[in-house]
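As a warm-up, study this chain.
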Amino acid sequence: MSNKIANTPEVKIGLVAVSRDCFPMSLSENRRNAVAKAYTDKYGAEGLFVCPTVIENEVHMRKALSEVNAEGCNALVVYLGNFGPETPETLLAKYFDGPAMFVAAAEDDCGNALVDNRGDAYCGMLNASYNLKLRGVKAYIPEYPVGTAPEVADMIREFIPIAKTVIGLRNLKIITFGPRPQDFLACNAPIARLYDLGVEIEENSELDLFEAYNNHKDDPRILEVIADMEKELGEGNKMAGILPRLAQYELTLLDWAEAHKGERKFVAFANKCWPAFQTQFRFVPCYVNGRLGARGIPVSCEVDIYGALSEYIGECISDEVVTLLDINNTVPGNIYREEIEGKFDYTQRDTFMGFHCGNGSACILNNPTMKYQLIMNRGLEGGGEPDISRGTLEGDIKAGEVTFFRLQSTADATLRSYAAEGEILPVSTRSFGTIGIFGIKEMGRFYRYVLLEKGYPHHGAVVFGHYGKALFDTLKYLGVEDREYNRPAGVRYYGENPYK
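Now compare it with the structure written out below.
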């Protein structure tokens, strides 16, 4: 299919060593060089700038700040090669316009003597963290932030997706079309919290989209997009007659994104997709949503603004395609007994089906096939030959590890989140749409005491892989205090009945 669009930031790390003036500066400088070597040996030199100035005082801080800015660094690693000067090192993080991480050096192997080469950075990290809090400066501190050169190199690598997400959100605009469908108040979106995260939003009417779509009639690029769709679908191209309308719509969204980015670099869409959409546009937009998602532009269904935001965060964290699904239905008893019980370590309540009409990207589906939306066909076309209900890409989602994730500003305008790691099982759903059978440990309790109790909507972002750790740390950096997960058996949720 078409090439991926650059819709997430490239992270360039500035590695800056600091040194307290009563310690040898060479100790911090040499340890910094060892970290840089360990990083480049394992991960390559791209995206890492080793700042030549070692900071002892505020004058050095200003010089180092100029150096990392001149190199185009958009993320910072402050490295305590020894105890470190708490004032200039925290001011560096304050004045730098980007996410920062603080890490410190473990003591080197020293034989029987620990005199000239002792750095005391273990102690220095305490002062650094204390001063960061005094100044109200936000910084990422890893789980155990003191390490050898190879360990610090790994910490830097783990910081990259966190930094990428923070930078991405500061440069993101979510573009919406249309209000929520009737009886979909669950997709409410108090927008004040978006601004808190640094995200911009542009809300438009369905009529704006319809006008833009009609203005793309006979666009000479349509034939090229149709050819790309045909190549991608292959034998799954069962509704070829709908491709011209879908191609016209895809160009409409791409052109709108480019024209309306404004001063932002990245975009995501949250679009209305039913019911009047079908009668006016005369197709279902699901396939296009999936195609844009595969190219790096999330498009959420049903004007789910925080669903689009969650997809974008998942994309920054994973560098993979992300999709949005309904937490939809239980797994029937016969499927569980025949295909899951005794073969996988899940109770029936640990399983559920995630579903959407047909928004899955082709790359995440087994045997992706262009079809029509069955429910809409019944309601709008009386179950007859499909026309305006065509446009879904259907198939069971490929088996593998997943993280089910959502960041939501709930009805009381409080930011809350969850991330539950699990897997999509290699079990046929025997159903329709973009769909998969999920296995998540203790899903029944998670469903009751997180999803229901805390008022989450029915949509969740599906990140393909286990990314709970990175998501947790990213949300913490962003200031989201409520970060839930599927707690193991024996670890109760607040409000969970202990007597059951």
